[in-house]
Amino acid sequence: MKKEKRARARRTGAQAAESGAARPAGGAGKTLRALGFAQKLTLAMLLVLAMALSLGGAVVLAGNFDDALNEAGQQAEVQHLLQCYALESDLLDVAARGETVTDSHLARYGSSLEDYVGGKLVALYRGDAAAQGGTSSAAAETETEAEAQAASNAERQPAALRTVYTSFPWDEGPTGQTDTYRMHRDGGRTYMLFEAEVETVGNPPVTLLTGHDMTSVFAARDRALLRFWEMELVVLVCAGAMIALLSRWLTKPLARLTQASESIAGGAYGERTGLSGGDEIGVLSRSFDAMAAAVQEKVDALELSVRQREDFMSAFTHELKTPMTAVIGYADTLRSMQCEPEQQQRAANYIFSEARRVEALSEKLLQLLGLREQAPALEPLELERVFTRARAALGPSVAPVEPVFQPAPGVRVRGDADLLVDLLYNLVQNAARARPKDGRVSIGWHTAAEGQGVDVTVRDTGCGIPAAALARVTEPFYMVDKSRARAGGGSGMGLALCEKIAALHGGRLQIESVEGEGTAVTVRLPAADGKEGGAAV
């Protein structure tokens, strides 16, 4: 049990450590996400600038330091070679006098050399054990030939190098690398060490080790590096301020885009950015404005559609309620009261007329719904025959107004004959209800420009339509003067039906009207063979 508890405690501790290690990263990510785009852009540009400056400064400083170190090294190497030549010259002088180079002689030379070079570190090493303690010139003269031969063999096979003289503050020995230098740091100072082996005839080789202080070169590098960091810090601070201002200026259009999008989301569909420019943000702004305009257009269309449906339902309910109220009233009178024959006849006639009106309304609605569900097949037609059928359908229904049809011999259009007859019938009925001053309704035609079709126009000299109502006269149940329209048997469905028929033939109603002077309604029908004909009415 104790082992399980300890294992569980270790797992809990490990999970806590992992969650603790992961928490800073998550916090940094949240902090970064919370920054604005301008702030992120500023940080990114500062990071790139800092990396570029640091990399460039490192390359330049490293190059300058290498040049300074090489120059100082060359000077130190020249001094080292001069010291080697001086040592070799001194050893040759000793040999010329027939003396043997002793350790004490080398120690004196090392001391004088140190005093001469001034502050340089000097060390002398040799490898013959026979010279330990020194040998005088007289003793050398009394050596036997055998002893001289033994000494010569000892020179050719020297013992381990020993220190004859050194001014180095640390234990430094030769490495045998005489073709290059090496660096050594001691007590906060840096030295460049050179090593050379000096040989003379009759004397064992002597190793000269010199140390040259390079602390000033490294100190100069450190000072240059510190100045560079200070300069880079100042540059980054100044650049950060400039980049922040520049980022705000560059991202100002984005802030405007954000504000516009929030306004549109809040229902202000007319809001626009109004930004210009040829860069990507300018293109984005124009695209955003175009999108907002399209959205506003769609919303306006939806609002108009909803308003039209509400008006349709209200008008439809009213158009049904008005005759039904009268029918119920007269029917109740006939049912509950004893009426005179004349009163009964008048009530029955009113009930009959209102019922016919409701029937006509329902037929128009069914016809309009049928047109919405299925498009008719268009076929070549003689326009004259369409005029003839429309004249027959009108009959005396528009009396005392007289419909006058312009002859159309040989003019062919593409369309549905029944629908075109209904179109002309309803247009003439509407024109007749406007009470033309001359008692006539003219139905004419002319070929459209460049043979694009045949324009059929129904014109009257009646009361006209107010300019404010022109945009709504094709809505179902919309009537400019409801009392006059109902008195003439109108239901407000005629022009809506005509607009739908015109749309099925690839066109639309073009209504021109001046209040008090009359109205002209034109619909363009597709030509069957491009034949041209009569003048405009």
Summary keywords:
Heat Shock Protein 90, single chain, 537 residues, five-stranded mixed beta sheet, five-stranded antiparallel beta sheet, alpha+beta
In short:
With 537 residues, this protein is an alpha+beta fold.
Overview of this structure, please?
The protein is α+β, with helices and mostly antiparallel strands and 537 residues long. The chain folds into three domains: 41-132 and 147-221; 269-374, no CATH class; 378-525, Histidine kinase-like ATPase, C-terminal domain (Heat Shock Protein 90, 2-Layer Sandwich), CATH 3.30.565. Helix content is 58%, strand content 15%. The protein contains twelve helices and twelve strands. Helix 8 (341-373) runs parallel beside helix 12 (494-504) and helix 9 packs across helix 10.
